[in-house]
Amino acid sequence: MYHTIIIAGNVGRDPEMRYTPSGQPVTSFSMATNRQYTGNNGQLVKETTWFRVTTWGKTAEVCNQYVKKGSKVLVEGTLRPDPATGSPKVYTKQDGSHGSSFEVTANTVRFLSGREDGGGGMGGGEMGGSFVGAPDEDIPF
Prior knowledge:
The protein has a five-stranded mixed beta barrel. It is mainly β. The termini are far apart. The longest helix has 10 residues, at 57-66. The chain has one helix spanning 57-66, and strands spanning 5-11, 16-19, 25-38, 44-56, 72-80, 89-92, 98-111, 126-127. The chain is built from one helix and eight strands. The chain has one domain (5-127): CATH 2.40.50.140.
């Protein structure tokens, strides 16, 4: 059996890179997806879902270099439940309310922000099993 998740959203804070004891690079960053809809009562409902994304190897190095807070990215990977509960990770927000985040191990990261957006440097690039676009390449669309 196999599952995959694809999410597109905005990076919540700058990535953090570290190395495993064997020297493997690992980069983590948070990203948010936003959705709005009209509820049963006719009110506009705004919903934000947070994801904690982990990348490995060359993808981790490139994400650490080019992904910045506010970048728009598309991530394809696998969803990992909290080992203790089998559910999303639950936390308490600064205002005292409860929140949750989903853990994703990324196989592919696509950079959706262009240089002019101030969100990374590789507009339209992809990092994962394959790479599309070079850092200095101008994308015509």
